[in-house]
Structures are given as structure tokens and as C-alpha cells.
Write a structure and sequence with these properties.
The protein is α+β, with helices and mostly antiparallel strands. The protein has 28 helices and 21 strands. About 0% of the residues have low confidence.
């Protein structure tokens, strides 16, 4: 057929069946939107962070990096610059600090101390405002300034001078004043510049700040120290430059790629991305099933159209060409709408918040659109549309009577073969057994197991549907007064295929909502248990603001001794910690004094004896670490692991393995004695204060705040407050799982409502026949509601039961593969709540088209 003829026929179809086509397209668009939004959000975090990292390092390809908080000697820079294979090098000092505005608003930033060498290296020399590196000032990115409420008007740019110059007092007085909380000290500074994209590039979107290197060294108490030296090798001599740097660095420093942070961030995002991608993949599968079921509602009408075309002599090839062209048009239009909807979701509802990683990485906030997620989502939507639309083409098989569809029982095109139900039930049982076996053998195959389980749920619907119909029939025989129920049953039996498609949509909806929502709840309860045990190792915590992981060190002075003299204080113990590069993992190091890690270890140990592990961690040379790290290095309890510390590579014995403590790259427990020795630092990252029994924690907390004074730069929080903050932050990082689950439920409700609306619209002729026989509109509406309730009940019961089993599979995947702490599956009313909510909301939505359909003109039956 010619393209003009194909377009003409499709336009005619749209005029007659616009409602059904639109509702089928909505199902496809919802599926594409879910797929695109979730994949886009996951890719954007690493993509925007990569832009930030590359904006800092510029053309530098290598770096020398300190392994401990004390940094490395700045004098090493001159030796690096003299290496034959090095073209340029620049120093960088990085600290985590809090900037506080006069009105009390604050933001935690990655503070960089730089000089003109770095500015020239990364190409900002001609765009960075001249005042940015002025003494006594601090330059804020636009994102940081917005968080503080500082006006973000553009700052004039100009070449940075070769040496920082002091800003005149009059100009400094006009600049906004802020307080810098850094390593237990507070310094008053003026905002020298607010750096937007025109001056700061990709860094403008991150929570960062910059100031002169010497100023930051003085404020941080790290004179003559830097954390990194960025190196640009001469063209073609990268390998030689790396070898020369490694010989110069020695055993206590690391030589790595300049953009090492990007690889480490991708690894850190791995488990949460795995969880999100797993949820997204299941949502995509379920969304495509929604689309498939929505298109199945049009199958009876399309089968009748095929029979009519064959009766007038149309060739099989022409009919197939026409139907596939229509499916392609619908798939392309619906997929494009889904892509737009998915992009909107990624910017708003599904915008990922990786704030729990902010203490270890510099993160961007821009949404980046990749070609691969775009292509996959679009192709998936078009493919699902074409596959579902091809079902009626089975009537083109050779040997099949031209008008066979009109000789089937019930409404033409709606019959289900007599042997189809037992075969589908047998297939459902086979898929259930296969999914169970796959997951038992390899938890990493949980996605495939869930896909098989979802298909088994759909195939089990006919059996459940027959059971519901028989139960309803038994009720009609027992209670003769239920006159509406027999009418509804007769209608459902006459439209078997349409009814099963609607029931299957309900089954898929409940399966996804129960499985994903229940697993998310188990994950959050597991994280909540970790947060409680982690914070409970001290009654009161003293540390840097917003430092939930106790990784920002500070100058303690005599603060511990002063706090210990407060009435009601039993003890004050120093805690230490930080991050360490272990391969491509940025591992969380937790160093605690003997016995101070008791509660968290007792609740998070996976293998090993808790009491023995606690005792061994009080001795020299023992650690406990996440199971994923141990598995990656092919070791375990009783074995050893070599760590790259500032003192060199050290082999330590493993006392136990744990979960990843909600820090996706993994964690390592050690003693403060080993940490101080190996990291060459006695500075604490937190002070744990124990309060005597019966003494008010709030009262002691306020007393500590008075003793420290307003200029300490430290934060005092109770164990309960710290637990709530950790729980909120980690939950926020995994909020996408909840959003996917919620969106899936909403999409399911809309898909069900759309499918029922389409079914009601296609039944106008039969409803007109009821009106013609004298049935009043309110009785027609009641019949429609009973039919909908029976269909939804059959599907939703199947989906809810399968969803509980799916929850078990997903829980196992999250615990085994991602390493997150996951609570055990417990008794919950969630399946029942979702079941009731879905049915009530869908019936409420369908009541509107049902009201209009009940008032259809009886003349339509005569016309038909």
C-alpha cells in the first residue's frame, strides 16, 4: 500500500476510535516516562559530578594525593615541576567547611585553597573575577550563595593577578560578611565574588568555595601543607610522568589519574544505582505490561476489522502493512510524549538527592541527557506497541476461516480458547518455579526472577478470574435478590479477553506496588536500625556541623577536659575517621576507642562473632569491614587485607564482616590507636560524651554548648538528633525508590482507570441495548461498577499475593548484591492497604465515564 493510502486509513480509524487509541497511547507513554526518568536521573548525578571534577583539574591528567587529613608537604611541588616529563603542576588544599550567613542560614561546602598556578592550569585565568583570590575574602559558587540567601548577580570578571592583592577596606566593607566554620575555628570573611557559569563553569552548580591557598592554610592550621598536586604531563610522555611521580611520592602518597574522583563516585553510586535501576527495570517491565494490556483492549475491534477486510478481498500483506503502520504511528507518538513526561519527572518528582555522598565528593546539580537512555526508552515504547498491536494478525494464519471471529461465543473477538486457561496456569507455575530456582542459585539474577514472576502473575489471572466468577455465580444462586450480579456475570463472560486484559492490568499494578513498596520499607527500616545503633555509641556528640559520619577533623585543644568537668558527664572519648582510596572505592574509615563500637557492630555484623570482633578491635592490627570489600579482595574473617595508609601499605587482620552501613562503597572499623598510628594524626573527628544515668541529656548538651562558646565552630547534638539526621539523609539518598514505587502505583491506577474507561466506551452499543430494554441509567451504572469490581478483584488479589513473594526476592537482592542493611520481612498491612486504595480510587475515577455511558441513547442499539 502507498504511504498516502496508509495515512488515509489511519485518519479514518482515529475519527472512529480516537478514544480507544488515545487511552492505549497513554499506557505506552506512562511506561516510557518511567523508564526514561529513572535512567536519566541515575546518569545525571555522575555526569554532572564529572563536569565539576574536570572543571577543577582542567588538562591535568595525573595527581599526587595525600592519604591522610594532614596533607603533604607543599615543597614537593617544586620537585614535581622539575621532573623531565612534567609540563605544569599546581597545588590544591581541600577542606570541608561550613559557611554561615548573618541571618543564621548555613551551607556546608568543599572549600578549595588555590593559587594562580591552578587558575592558569584549569583555564579560569581569564574568567575568574580579579577579587576572588583576595586576602580576607572567599569566593562562593552561585549554588552556595543561593543557599545562603546572598544575591547572585554576576561579578565582573578579569584576569587573575600573578599575586593575590588585598581588597581595599571600603570595598571589603561593602561585600556581604559571612562566618567560616573550619576545623573547630570560626573566622569572619567577606564574600569576594559570587561565581556563576560565566566565571566558574561547571563549578557554579556545585556547593563549593575558593580562597587563597595561604589563607586557607593559615585558617586550617595546615601551614605549608596541601592535599593534592595536579600534574599535566608533556605530550606523549604520560607513562613516563606517572613513573617519575611514583618514584618521587614514595610509599605514603598516592599517584592516580587526576579525575579519579569520577571513577570513585561511580563506584559509590553503584549500589544505590543498582537499587534504583532494579526498581526502574521492574517499573519499566510493569509499565510495558500496562501498555500491552491497554492495547489488548483494542484487539476485539481490530480482529473484527481484519475479518471485514478479508471478506471484501484485502490481501494478507496489505492488512499486515496497514496494522503495523498504525502501530508504528501510535508507538512513535506515545513514546515521544513519554520522553517529554520522563524529562519533566527527572527535573521534579524523581530528582535524585545524593546528599549522603556530599561529605566525600563534590557533586553537581545539573540534569544531563544521554543518548543511550533516550534511545532505549523510545525503542522500548515503540517495540511494545508493535508487539501488542500484532496480536490480531494471528487471524491471518492460513487455513483460518475468514469470518471465524464472528462465530465465537460472546462478543466477537473476545473469546478465549477452551484449552488456553489450563495451559496459562501451567505456564505460570513453571515460571514461578524457574524464578525461585534462579534467585536461590544467584541473587544477582533477581531482576530476571522478578520479570518471570511478573509474567507468571499475568498468566495466573485467568485462573483467578474463573474462581471469582464461580464465587459470584454461587452468590447469585444462594441470594436470589442479587439481580444485578447475574447481568454483570453475563457481560463479563461475553467479553472474556477484554475482562482478562483489565484484570491483568490490576494484577501487574498490585504486584509492582506491593513488591517495590514493601522492599523500600524494609530497606529504610534496615537503615533506620543502623542509624540508631551508630548514634547510640555516645549520649552526646560534639563535632563539625553536619558531619554525620565523623570524618572532618578539628583541633580539640583542651575541650575534652573542659567538657569532662561538667556535672553529669561520665566520660569524654575521642572518635576518629575519614575516607580512604581502596582501588576505585572511597571507603569510610571508622576509628573508635575500645568498646565504643559495640552497638553498631552487634547490629550490622554479617559474618563473625560480635563479642570476639569487639574484643579484637581493641587490640592492635585488627579491622572489621563490609562484606562487599572482603569479597572483592577474596578474603574473609581471619584473613588479612592490605590498606594504603599514610604510613605505607599495612596488612591488617579481619575480625568480622558487616553490611555497608548505608555507605555504598563500604566501611572499615579500626581502633583509634591504630588510626592515630597509621594515619599519623591525633586530631579527633568527634567527641563522644557519656551521661550518667538519670541525668538530663538536654541539660548536659546545653552546658557543653556554653563551655565551648559561640566561636568554637563545633556542633553539639544528642544521639537521638544524630540518629534522625543520619536516617533522614540516607533516606533522602534513596528517596528515588519511594518515588518510583509511588509513581508506579499512580501509573497503575491511571492505567486501570484508562483501561476501564476504554472498555466502557467500547460497550456503548450493549449499554444502549440495556437502555432499550427499559433498564434505568442508575441501574446501568451499578452494573458497570459491579463488573469493574469483579475484574479488579480478580487481578488485584493475584497481584497482591505475587507482590509479597516479589518483596522477598527484592529484599534478598538488596542485601546480597548491594550490601545495604535490610530489615527482615515482617507482617504488614501494606498489601491490603494498596489493594483497597487501588480499587476505591479506580472505581471513583471510572464513576465519571460510567455516568456518561449510562445515559447513552437507546437509538444507538438500533443503529448498530
Amino acid at each position: 500500500m502507498r504511504p498516502r493510502a496508509l495515512l488515509h486509513l489511519y485518519r479514518r480509524r482515529l475519527r472512529v476510535h480516537a478514544g480507544a487509541e488515545l487511552l492505549a497511547g497513554v499506557g505506552v507513554a506512562v511506561a516510557v516516562a518511567l523508564v526514561f526518568a529513572t535512567t536519566l536521573v541515575s546518569a545525571s548525578v555522575a555526569g554532572s559530578a564529572g563536569e565539576v571534577v574536570h572543571a577543577v583539574v582542567g588538562p591535568a591528567g595525573l595527581q599526587i594525593r595525600a592519604r591522610g587529613p594532614g596533607g603533604l608537604d607543599e615543597r614537593l611541588l617544586a620537585r614535581v615541576q622539575r621532573l623531565p616529563a612534567v609540563m605544569a603542576a599546581a597545588p590544591l588544599l581541600e577542606q570541608t567547611a561550613t559557611v554561615r550567613a548573618p541571618d543564621g542560614r548555613s551551607v556546608t561546602v568543599d572549600l578549595a585553597g588555590a593559587d594562580t598556578a591552578l587558575v592558569v592550569l584549569d583555564g579560569l585565568a581569564h574568567t575568574l573575577p580579579i577579587a576572588t583570590l583576595s586576602e580576607g575574602g572567599i569566593g562562593l559558587s552561585r549554588t552556595s550563595a543561593q543557599a545562603l540567601g546572598i544575591p547572585t548577580r554576576a561579578t565582573p570578571t578579569g584576569a587573575v593577578p600573578p599575586h593575590p592583592i588585598a581588597a581595599p577596606r571600603a570595598q571589603a566593607g561593602q561585600a556581604p560578611a559571612v562566618s567560616l566554620l573550619l576545623r573547630g575555628r570560626v573566622a569572619a570573611l567577606s564574600v569576594s565574588a559570587v561565581l556563576g557559569p560565566e566565571a566558574f563553569g561547571a563549578l557554579a552548580q556545585a556547593r563549593v568555595a575558593v580562597m587563597p591557598l595561604q589563607s586557607l592554610q593559615r585558617l586550617a592550621g595546615l601551614r605549608g601543607r596541601v592535599t593534592r598536586i595536579l600534574v599535566q604531563a608533556r605530550p606523549g610522555r604520560e607513562a613516563a610522568a606517572r613513573a617519575q611521580l611514583q618514584a618521587l611520592a614514595g610509599a605514603g602518597l598516592s599517584v592516580a589519574a587526576a579525575d579519579q574522583d569520577v571513577a570513585e563516585l561511580r563506584r559509590a553510586l553503584g549500589p544505590s544505582d543498582q537499587a534504583s535501576a532494579f526498581f526502574a527495570a521492574i517499573s519499566a517491565l510493569l509499565g510495558l505490561l500496562f501498555a500491552f494490556n491497554a492495547l489488548l483492549l483494542t484487539v476485539p475491534e481490530r480482529r473484527r476489522a481484519i475479518a471485514d477486510l478479508r471478506l471484501i478481498g484485502a490481501r494478507r500483506a496489505a492488512i499486515a502493512q496497514m496494522f503495523l503502520f498504525q502501530a508504528l504511528c501510535l508507538g512513535v507518538a506515545a513514546s515521544l510524549a513519554g520522553l517529554l513526561g520522563g524529562y519533566a519527572l527527572s527535573l521534579g518528582v524523581l530528582h535524585q538527592s545524593p546528599g549522603y555522598l556530599a561529605e566525600a565528593f563534590t557533586l553537581g546539580t545539573r540534569t544531563t541527557v544521554g543518548a543511550l537512555p533516550l534511545a532505549l526508552a523510545f525503542a522500548g515504547g515503540v517495540l511494545a506497541t508493535c508487539v501488542a498491536s500484532a496480536v490480531p494478525l494471528l487471524d491471518l494464519r492460513r487455513g483460518r476461516t475468514l469470518d471465524a471471529v464472528y462465530w465465537e461465543d460472546g462478543v466477537p473477538g473476545n473469546a478465549l480458547g477452551g484449552g488456553a486457561q489450563p495451559r496459562m496456569a501451567l505456564a505460570a507455575l513453571s515460571l514461578l518455579a524457574l524464578s525461585t530456582g534462579l534467585f536461590a542459585l544467584a541473587p544477582s539474577l533477581a531482576l530476571l526472577a522478578c520479570a518471570l514472576l511478573a509474567l507468571a502473575t499475568v498468566l495466573a489471572v485467568p485462573l483467578t478470574f474463573v474462581g471469582v466468577l464461580r464465587l459470584a455465580h454461587a452468590l447469585t444462586e444462594r441470594f436470589q435478590g442479587l439481580t444485578i450480579l447475574p447481568v454483570a456475570l453475563a457481560s463479563l463472560r461475553a467479553t472474556t479477553l477484554r475482562s482478562l486484559a483489565l484484570a491483568a492490568t490490576g494484577a501487574v499494578a498490585l504486584f509492582g506496588s506491593v513488591a517495590l513498596g514493601g522492599s523500600r520499607g524494609d530497606l529504610l527500616r534496615g537503615i533506620g536500625g543502623f542509624a540508631h545503633s551508630y548514634a547510640a555509641d555516645a549520649s552526646i556528640w560534639v563535632g563539625a556541623p553536619d558531619d554525620n559520619q565523623a570524618v572532618v577533623d578539628f583541633l580539640a585543644g583542651d575541650r575534652a577536659r573542659r567538657i569532662a568537668r561538667i556535672p553529669g558527664v561520665v566520660s569524654v572519648r575521642p572518635f576518629q575517621g575519614g575516607f580512604m582510596q581502596l582501588g576505585d572505592r572511597r571507603v569510610w574509615i571508622i576509628a573508635r576507642p575500645p568498646g565504643a563500637a559495640r552497638q553498631v557492630l552487634e547490629s550490622q555484623i554479617v559474618s563473625g562473632n560480635a563479642q570476639e570482633a569487639i574484643a579484637r578491635l581493641g587490640q592492635r592490627g585488627w579491622i572489621a569491614l563490609s562484606r562487599q570489600i572482603a569479597a572483592e579482595h577474596h578474603t574473609g574473617v581471619g584473613g588479612t587485607l592490605t590498606l594504603p595508609t599514610p604510613s605505607g601499605a599495612v596488612s591488617l587482620r579481619i575480625a568480622a564482616t558487616t553490611t555497608n552501613l548505608a555507605w555504598s562503597p563500604g566501611a572499615i572499623f579500626t581502633s583509634t590507636a591504630d588510626y592515630s598510628r597509621l594515619w599519623a594524626s591525633g586530631a579527633p573527628t568527634a567527641l563522644g560524651v557519656e551521661v550518667a544515668p538519670g541525668v538530663s541529656v538536654i541539660g548536659v548538651q546545653r552546658a557543653i554548648e556554653r563551655v565551648l562558646g559561640p566561636v568554637s565552630g563545633l556542633e553539639v547534638s544528642s544521639a537521638h538528633a544524630r540518629e534522625a539526621r543520619i536516617d533522614a539523609l540516607t533516606s533522602e539518598g534513596l528517596s528515588q525508590l519511594g518515588e518510583i514505587s509511588t509513581l508506579l502505583l499512580l501509573a497503575a491506577i491511571l492505567a486501570l482507570a484508562a483501561a476501564l474507561t476504554s472498555a466502557i466506551w467500547q460497550r456503548r452499543a450493549s449499554l444502549a441495548a440495556l437502555r432499550l430494554s427499559g433498564v434505568r441509567p442508575q441501574r446501568v451504572r451499578l452494573i458497570l461498577m459491579v463488573e469493574a469490581a469483579l475484574m479488579l478483584g480478580a487481578g488485584c488479589v493475584t497481584g497482591a499475593l505475587a507482590g509479597i513473594y516479589g518483596q522477598v526476592v527484592i529484599d534478598g537482592y538488596l542485601a546480597e548484591v548491594t550490601g545495604f542493611p535490610v530489615a527482615r520481612l515482617g507482617a504488614s498491612l501494606r498489601p491490603l492497604e494498596i489493594f483497597a486504595l487501588t480499587i476505591v480510587l479506580v472505581l471513583a475515577i471510572v464513576a465519571v465515564p460510567g455516568w456518561f455511558a449510562s445515559r447513552v441513547s437507546p437509538m444507538l442499539a438500533l443503529n448498530e
